[in-house]
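Need C-alpha cells for this chain, all 459 residues.
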Amino acid sequence: MATTSIWKVTQRIDKVVNYATDEEKTKNEYADVNMNQFYSVRDLLMYATNPDKTEKQFYTTAINCKLETAVDEMQFIKKIKGKEGGILAFHGYQSFKSGEVTPEIAHEIGVRLAEEMWGDRFQVVVSTHLNTENIHNHFVLNSVSFKDGFKYYSNLANTALLRRTSDELCEEYGLSVLPEKTCRSGINFENFYRKSMKESDYYKFAKEDLDYAIEHAYALSDMNCILKSMGYSYYYRADKLRIRDKYHKRNIRVERAFGEEYSLYRIKQRILSHNLVNYEDIIPYRIPPAKKYTTKRSFKKIYKPKGIIALYYYYKHLLGLYPKYNQSFRLTPEMRAGIRKMDMYSEQIRFMCKYKLETLSRINDVKNEKKEELQKYLNCRNRLYYKRKNLKEDDDKELITKQIIAVTSELEKIRKELKMCDVIYDNSIKMRENLREMEEKEHPKEHENEKTKTGKYVR
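Here are the C-alpha cells for all 459 residues:
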C-alpha cells in the first residue's frame, strides 16, 4: 500500500525549513514536513538527497540528467526554453505501509513510477528516505519539459494518474492497495482517471492496435509478433499483459486499462474463437493513384481560394497532408499525428470558407459578430435561470431546463467559433513568416536585392 501526493515549488518563500540538517526532525513522521517551503530547486534537491536519510545516497537515482549536476541541468533547460519564471519544480512523494516493503523494492518502485509518469519528457530525481517508520520516496520534477518546452500541468487528472500508476506498480510487487473512495472534498479521482484514459490518444490507439493483433492472430505468440511489428514491446507479469510503444515510457496494463475483456484468459479465448487466418504483414499507408475522368458536359465556374484561405491550402500542401484513403491499413504513430494535423487544418479551412475569411480584418469582423451573438445567448440563459427559480411546478421547471440546455449547446458552438477565429488569426501570421523564411533560404540572392539600406524588405 502506498499513498502519493505532489506539490508545486515556487521562488522566494520567506521561510526555509532546514529539515535536512535538523536531527530532531529526522525522528518525526514524514507528514510533518511542509513541502512548500523551499527557496529554489537546489534547496529542494539538497533536502531530497540528504545522505542522512538515503543511506549516503545509495537509494538515489536521476532520470534524464546526472545526479551531480541535476540542478544546473534543470536550470539550463528552463533558460533555453525561456521558462525561468513561475513554478520552479514539483515535489512529490510516495509513502509505503510500515514494514511492508524493503528499501531496495521501494526505490525500484519509485524509479519505475517516475519513469512511467514523467520519464519521456521531464528531468526527475528519485530518492528513498529511510528516516521514518514509513519508507517513502521523494520526487523532484523539473517544471519544464526538455522535449517540447511545455510546463508540467498538475491537475486532478494527472493526480489521479499518479495514484493509479502507483497502485498498479504496488500490485505487481504484491503490495496491498487502498480501495478508491471519494475524498473529503468530494472529489472522486477514479472518475478523473477514466476520463483521462478516454481522452488519451496513446491509450485509444493502443487499444485499436491490440484489437487488430487479436483479430489477426491464430495463437498468443502470433499476437505478440504482430504487436512487435507495430512497434510495441510487451511482457507478462502475474498472468497479466503489459504493452508499451516506442514513443512512450508508460506501460499500459491492458486488463486494468481496458476491462476484463482484455484479461489474458479472455484474449486467448478471443484468438481461438475466430477463424484461423494467415499472418498479415502491416501494409504501409499509401495513396492510390488519381483516377482520370472525361466528360462532354460543361462545368460551372469553380470557386478559387483567395487570401488566407489560399495560404492555408498551400501550407497544407507543403506539410504533405493528403486525404485519408485506405483507412483499413494500420497507420504508424507518425501517420496518425499527420492525420490529426490534417483534420485540424481541414476544420479551419471549412470554417474560413463558410465565412469567407480572406483577410485579417474579415476575421476581426466575424469575431465581433460572434461576441454580440454570444452576449445575446448569455442574456437569454440568464433570463431562463431567473424564470426557473421563481417557478413552483416541477413540470414547468423541467420545460425551462430543456430550454436552458438548448441555449447552452448554442453557447458552446459560438465559443468554439470564437476560439477558431483566434487560432486562424495567429496561424495566418505564423504561416506567412514561415513561408518567407523558406523563400529566403531557397532564393537568398533575390531577397538580398530586395533589402533596403536599413535592412528592411521593399514590399
